[in-house]
Specification:
The radius of gyration is 37 Å and the shape is elongated. The longest helix is centred in the last third of the chain and has 70 residues. It has two helices and no strands. With about 130 residues, it is mainly alpha-helical. Helices cover about 60% and strands about 0% of the residues.
């Protein structure tokens, strides 16, 4: 038994413009700015806020990061190399056991085939 309310709602068209969290949406005319939650919270719109600080902190951070990388470079390369070598060694240990098992299985199969073939040839000669 289906109800009309259970029917899927018709698809609404997707809006072409959706504001992001960093954009300011204007207050509709006829309302007071102080009545909006943003104004009540004391948030200043971007137009009236102070200009953003110059990019000097970013440059300082980049210089600090570059200096740290220069100091850590040789040690970091060595540590990364050792970590990779350790992981590869662990993988090879696990792989060695599987390779040994597979080689042993293959050799057994080939020996069994050769013995069977030899037995058939010996039986035919008699």
């Amino acid at each position: 038994m289906a109800f009309e309310d259970d029917a899927p709602a018709p698809a609404r068209p997707v809006p072409k413009f959706v504001p992001t969290l960093t954009e300011t949406i204007g207050v509709p005319s006829g309302t007071q700015a102080a009545s909006t939650p943003v104004a009540a919270a004391g948030v200043v719109p971007p137009e009236t806020s102070q200009p953003a600080a110059p990019s000097a902190p970013v440059e300082t951070d980049e210089r600090i990061a570059q200096a740290m990388l220069e100091q850590l470079g040789p040690d970091l390369d060595k540590l990364v190399s050792e970590a990779v070598a350790r992981v590869v060694h662990e993988q090879m240990l696990g792989l060695a056991g599987r390779v040994r098992t597979e080689v042993a299985r293959t050799v057994r199969e080939q020996v069994a085939r050769q013995l069977l073939a030899h037995t058939k040839r010996s039986g035919e000669e008699s």
